[in-house]
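During the reporting period the student researcher (J.K.) took over the structure-prediction task from the postdoctoral fellow and processed the backlog of single-chain submissions. One of the processed entries is reproduced below for the supervisory committee.
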Amino acid sequence: MKKTMAIGLGLLVGGIVSLAAADESRVMIVNAAGVDDTTLEAVRSHAERELFVPVAAEKVAVTKGEDLKVIGKKLADKKTEQDACLVVLANVMSETNVHSKIMTNEQVVVINVAALLSDDPVKFTRRLQRWVLRGAALLFGVGPDIDPHCVMHDYITLDELDKMGLNFSPPWMDMFRDAAEKRGLTVRPFGVLPPGPVR
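J.K. obtained the following structure tokens:
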């Protein structure tokens, strides 16, 4: 249905950027929010590094005028056998007080990019990076952490989100790794970096 591509300067709608084998299970980031390619790759590569599992990213047509649940249901139908879960980036301006919709049965989380916008591109990218980790972990049954530096710490305001760490605390990392293995994902050993871009 879709083809695997090496990382380049651009992403085609319907094309997948991934360094994993085409038949390898992965976390799939679906960009339905029109996030630019540079930011998307920064989010994807950070997720692959911090989750220790293959992470791919795909651009699809930008969604507008729908709520997070409707978007999640539509994109859930496009999951492939290789997609352990979908982390969808969507823009729902009417729900800017809602940062995400977790759909456990479908193994889809929809992140509301409109709620995370910032004039500071670094801050915006980091918000997305945190939420991709949070979203995948919540879908895999990893709950909140009381450690304020862990990416799974509960928050209320964007300021609190911005003060959060960009990765898991060690016990939560172990929980995610265990959950990923049970779902058939290849989990890299500690100290092993993900593969670099194919040139």
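The committee noted the following: The longest helix spans residues 121-139.
J.K. will present the remaining backlog at the next meeting.
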